[in-house]
């Protein structure tokens, strides 16, 4: 886990996630095992790991796919979480098929960008829309909803129990 800049008890975390689309334009999402939300394939970067390497490693681990980076959609700063997320558009050859499930992934499925599941990780819908719109190299400071943030913290608390 790549971490830096302690602020009080919090540590800034860094993650890298990929937007993978099929030939129909649908986006690949992973239903997580650790809490009941859909997410883009990806995750926390390892210490010293570049986002470009982290996203490829995480996608391979979670989906079984080997992808190449098309471009960086943007870097999203989630202030309440003290989290930095790099979102990439990832190309995967059409002859590759994702695994059914994995150690961190309960299920994988493709969704139309205009019909995403309701139980999606915060900010993912915005990030997916930015990717679909072809945006590049954005720097977004997310003004998160405090109630959603508290809900995520409660889910994590129950998971630890």
Could you walk me through the main structural features you see in this protein, from its secondary elements to its overall organization?
With 161 residues, this protein is of the alpha+beta class. Helix content is 23%, strand content 37%. The protein is built from 3 helices and 9 strands; from the N terminus they run βββββαβββαβα. The radius of gyration is 15 Å and the shape is globular. The two termini are 22 Å apart.
Topology:
Layout: E1 3-7, E2 10-20, E3 27-32, E4 38-39, E5 42-44, H1 51-63, E6 68-78, E7 83-91, E8 105-111, H2 124-132, E9 138-142, H3 146-160
Parallel strand pairs: 2-7, 6-9
Antiparallel strand pairs: 1-2, 2-5, 3-4, 3-8, 6-7
Task: Fill in the keyword field for this structure.
161 residues; alpha+beta; six-stranded mixed β-sheet; three-stranded antiparallel β-sheet; 3 helices; globular
Q: From the alpha-carbon coordinates, what is the Rg to the nearest angstrom?
A: 15 Å
Mean pLDDT: 89
For the sheet with most strands, the description reads: 6 strands, mixed
Helix-strand string:
EEEEEHEEEHEH
Strand content: 35-45%
Helix amount: 10-25%
- Distance between the amino and carboxyl termini: 22 Å
Q: Quickly count the helices.
A: 3
**From the helix content, strand content and strand pairing, which structural class follows?**
alpha+beta
Oligomer: single chain
Silhouette? globular
């Amino acid at each position: 886990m790549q971490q830096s800049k302690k602020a009080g008890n919090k540590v800034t975390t860094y993650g890298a996630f990929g937007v993978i689309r099929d030939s129909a334009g649908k986006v690949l999402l992973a239903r997580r095992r650790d809490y009941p939300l859909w997410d883009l394939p990806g995750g926390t970067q390892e210490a010293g790991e570049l986002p470009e390497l982290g996203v490829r490693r995480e996608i391979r681990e979670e989906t079984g796919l080997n992808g190449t980076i098309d471009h960086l959609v943007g870097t999203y700063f989630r202030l309440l979480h003290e989290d930095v997320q790099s979102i990439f558009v990832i190309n995967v050859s059409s002859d590759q098929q994702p695994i059914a499930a994995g150690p961190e992934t309960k299920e994988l499925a493709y969704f139309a960008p205009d019909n995403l599941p309701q139980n999606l990780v915060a900010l993912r819908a915005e990030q997916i829309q930015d990717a679909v719109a072809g945006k590049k190299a954005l720097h977004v400071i997310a003004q998160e909803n405090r109630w959603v943030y508290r809900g995520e913290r409660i889910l994590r608390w129950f998971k630890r129990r």
